[in-house]
Design goal:
Elements: H1 2-8, H2 22-46, H3 52-76, H4 80-102, H5 110-126, H6 129-138
Helix pairs in contact: 2-3, 3-4, 4-5
Length: about 140
């Protein structure tokens, strides 16, 4: 019975490994916080049934929020798949942010600039050769 409890909490426990660079730790925290914010926002918008637009956006926010949390946790545990996942999610978020401004769905303001800068910073940091090399050296594949 004790083993079953340990197995269910295994996902929550951080893998022991080398010390993470401060930038990677910051990205991990940012992804998890963003994921929680997306899930909360998506859930609250889902309750507004006045427009199909809100339902579609809510569903996208919920999916992205869960993905952000999973990828953030994967980065915290040196999972190799999480490195690619973080780059893909940040790229997708970057393009969606630019898209909503271009289409006029959302007015351009400082939060848009901040979102663009944060996502570009995440992408540029994670594609650095030394970060990729650390994941190759210390990272775990999903089978480990």
């Amino acid at each position: 019975m004790g083993n079953k409890s340990n197995e269910s909490n295994e996902w929550l426990e951080e893998e022991k490994g080398p010390e993470k660079p401060a930038g990677l730790t910051a990205i991990t925290v940012l992804l998890v916080i963003s994921g929680v914010q997306y899930v909360i926002s998506g859930s609250s918008w889902l309750l507004d049934f006045t427009a199909a637009y809100y339902t579609i956006v809510s569903a996208m926010m919920l999916v992205l929020g869960v993905a952000f949390i999973i990828v953030g946790r994967g980065l915290a545990n040196w999972r190799r798949w999480a490195l690619l996942g973080a780059i893909v999610i940040s790229s997708l978020t970057l393009f969606l942010t630019i898209g909503v401004v271009i289409t006029g769905i959302y007015a351009f303001d400082y939060s848009i600039i901040l979102g663009i800068v944060i996502n570009l910073t995440i992408i540029l940091y994670l594609i650095r050769p030394e970060i990729r090399a650390q994941f190759e050296q210390y990272g775990y594949s999903s089978s480990q």
